[in-house]
Amino acid sequence: LEKRFNRRVHMMVKAANARLGPHQPRLTFDVAKRMLKGVVASSLARAQERAAEQDCPVEIFAFVSMSNHVHIVVRTARKNLADFMGYFKARVAETINYLTGR
Fold first, then answer.
1. Cα separation of 73 and 77, whole Å?
2. How far is 70 from 9, CA to CA, in rounded Å?
3. Fewest beta carbons less than 10 Å away: which of 3, 31, 45, 93?
4. How far apart are CA 15 and CA 32, in angstroms?
């Protein structure tokens, strides 16, 4: 599984770097791997922080990150779940788009 993940990361880095201009900094394998492994947790933390700043706290009880989807168990006192999830998914998408050069 780790070998397959590493191959995919190498292909992603190669494709992302091919789309960059001549003076843009290149993405490295190590940076891409770190970003991918932490993208869900860091995006979730940022979304939770944003909700708290808006005085609409979201309590996260558990999350599982699968290869193609995520399960999250949360509780919120207000009806801000759609906003919270939208912000979370946008942060994940931004990181993946950056890594894929899109």
1. 14
2. 20
3. 3
4. 12
